[in-house]
Amino acid sequence: MSSKEQKTPEGQAPEEIITEQHDDVEAVEPEVSAEQVDPRDEKIANLEAQLAEAQKREREVMLRAKADEDNLRRRTEQDIEKAHKFALEKFVNELLPVIDSLDRALEVADKANPDLAPMVEGIELTLKSMLDVVRKFGVEVIADTNVPLDPNVHQAIAMVESEDVAAGNVLAVMQKGYTLNGRTIRAAMVTVAKAK
């Protein structure tokens, strides 16, 4: 009988016995109770939670910073737009007394006198050309009568009884008002009609 043919108890070859014993050894592992948790696993879980919280805070900070940046950019653009739009306001305010003087000169001029006709015509043309120039830059005159009083563009200085004009409407304009690109730079001084 050769060694290969040699059988161990119960007819098993020696290699089969070793493999079987090895399987038994692997099957026997120390049992870990639920109470025995590896402290490293606990620390890893804690660190992962801290990392997730830090990422969440960082994301919120970044979103807030982006929103602040967008708001600042939008405000700056609006400020620049307003600066361009209303840059002429100071200049126009300086021109208003000149325009008022030309208006008053026309009001008091004796238009019936033929000797003054060329001067009156010159004042009218000067006033017209000045108003045309300021209109090109967004200046509008507020001088309408028989319109409802608007506190945004009118300043009432007197109330007068009138049958021709409805109560609460502008009866007469004492001093013209002006707007620049829709913004009042000087309110019109007006008298307002009141009921009898």
Sum up the structure in keywords:
single chain; 196 residues; alpha+beta; Nucleotide Exchange Factor Grpe, Chain A, domain 2; 3-stranded antiparallel beta sheet; 3-stranded mixed beta sheet; elongated; GrpE_coiled_coil; cytoplasm; unfolded protein binding; GrpE_head; chaperone
Task: Explain what the structure shows.
The chain has 196 residues and is of the alpha+beta class. It has a domain at 89-194: Nucleotide Exchange Factor Grpe, Chain A, domain 2 (Roll). 52% of the residues lie in helices and 17% in strands. The chain contains four helices and six strands. A hairpin with a 2-residue loop joins strand 4 (177-180) and strand 5.
Question: Can you lay out the helices and strands and say which pair or pack?
Answer:
Layout: H1 14-27, H2 39-85, H3 89-108, H4 117-136, E1 139-142, E2 154-161, E3 170-175, E4 177-180, E5 183-186, E6 188-194
Parallel strand pairs: 2-6
Antiparallel strand pairs: 1-4, 3-6, 4-5
What is the fold-level CATH name, i.e. the topology of the domain at 89-194? Nucleotide Exchange Factor Grpe, Chain A, domain 2
Q: Work out the strand percent.
A: 15-25%
Dominant shape: elongated
Give the uncertain stretches in residue-range form: none
Q: What's the Cα radius of gyration? A: 48 Å
Strand order, largest beta sheet: 1-4-5
* Beta-strand segment tally: 6
Distance between the termini: 145 Å
Oligomeric state, counting identical vs distinct chains: single chain
Structure classification: alpha+beta
Helix content: 40-55%
Q: What's the pLDDT, averaged over the residues?
A: 85
| Level-1 CATH class name of the domain at 89-194 | Mainly Beta
The appropriate CATH architecture of the domain at 89-194 is Roll
In DSSP terms (H or I, runs of 4 or more residues), the helix count works out at 4
How are helices and strands ordered from N to C? HHHHEEEEEE
Characterize the main sheet: 3 strands, antiparallel
